[in-house]
Write a structure and sequence with these properties.
The protein has 337 residues and is α/β, with parallel strands linked by helices. Helices cover 39% and strands 21% of the residues.
Length: 337
């Protein structure tokens, strides 16, 4: 199996139990997450070697994070140590008309976001990586982290590896004039990407690609081929989400591989915890591409994995390939015995 690594921040997730708010509750349950954590853990469950490239503090909290990652099956041998803090966020679960809410601490002061480029031996890391996963959330952090991302991607490409870039645009992280500020950095990352996780909103608003006044699927078919051609991307993939009146969600996945579109069936399901579901979709796309599965099989598996992720508490959803394929088939939802 190819060795797949992700470069990104590890965060502590502090969750209010049940559906209480922070004001109501006096208890918090903690775990560790982050886009890179979610992706590498899911890929390890599929049988790949999933490694994380990050910096963690040399504190009991940092040790706890490493122990948690190892429990998930993530290779921690590429993790550097330094700094004093781990980024944290507080999660309140939504219910009905009340949406979920995420409140971040000072992420910019974390060990990862304050690490110097000298913390990472880029050529040595690149020599150990066949596929590198990078995320737009990491790209938004600060100029130092952006340069580290780009340098690592260049080194991986130079060593003959592949780069996966998940756009994952978060307006709150880019501030005012966010699309304008983000565009040159997204363009640089897409120039390096072999696989891109992107939707029509990313293409329209970040990259400035025009689209007619059509429905979202029609816009997707119009703008994604232009992205693929402009940046020489081999495979683009993403999802379309609908939130229904009964509070269920519907997902449709797509792959545009060498100019040809393939769509999954629309899957509709109730939601228990949606955070991290996009990372689970991305992981299944990477897995299918690495296994050279037919595109229809890959996108069907990816959207089914994302559906299952919505049924699981926590950011990091761990399913085997057989469990994902079982979710695609017609079967009773009775207890498995």
């Amino acid at each position: 199996m190819p060795r797949i690594a992700a470069f990104g921040e590890v965060m502590m997730r502090l969750q209010v139990p049940g559906y209480e708010t922070l004001i109501q509750s006096s208890r918090l349950e903690y775990s560790f997450s982050g886009s890179g954590v979610n992706v590498t853990a899911a890929l390890a469950k599929y049988g790949h070697s999933g490694a994380l490239i990050t910096t963690l503090p040399e504190t009991p909290v940092g040790e706890s994070a490493i122990a948690y990652l190892r429990k998930l099956g993530v290779d921690t041998s590429l993790i550097s140590r330094g700094g004093k803090h781990l980024g944290m966020y507080f999660l309140e679960n939504g219910f009905g008309a009340r949406p979920g809410r995420v409140t971040y601490t000072d992420r910019l002061g974390s060990s990862f976001n304050t690490a110097e480029a000298s913390n990472y031996d880029m050529p040595a890391l690149a020599a150990k990586v066949d596929v590198l996963h990078l995320c737009g959330i990491t790209l938004a952090m600060n100029e130092g982290v952006r340069e580290q991302m780009k340098q690592l991607a260049v080194e991986v490409k130079r060593a003959g590896g592949k780069v996966v870039f998940d756009c994952n645009y978060r307006p709150a992280l880019w501030g005012t004039d966010g699309y304008t500020k983000a565009r040159p950095h997204y363009e640089e990352m897409l120039e390096l990407a072999d696989i891109a996780l992107i939707n029509e909103k990313d293409a329209r608003y970040i990259l400035g690609i025009g689209a007619g006044d059509y429905d979202r699927i029609a816009q997707l078919k119009q703008v994604i081929p232009e992205v693929v051609e402009r940046f020489c991307i081999r495979t683009a993939a993403g999802t379309q989400r609908e939130i229904n009146a009964d509070h269920t969600h519907s997902l449709t996945g797509y792959i545009c591989h060498e100019g040809t579109f393939v769509f999954s069936d629309k899957l509709t399901f109730p939601v228990y915890d949606r955070i991290g579901a996009g990372d689970v979709f991305a992981s299944a796309i990477i897995h299918g591409e690495m296994q050279q599965y037919p595109q229809q099989q890959t996108v069907n598996m990816a959207v089914a994995a994302a559906m299952l992720a919505h049924t699981t508490p926590g950011d990091t959803a761990l399913f085997s390939e057989s469990e994902v394929l079982r979710a695609l088939s017609d079967h009773t939802l009775d207890v498995e015995r």
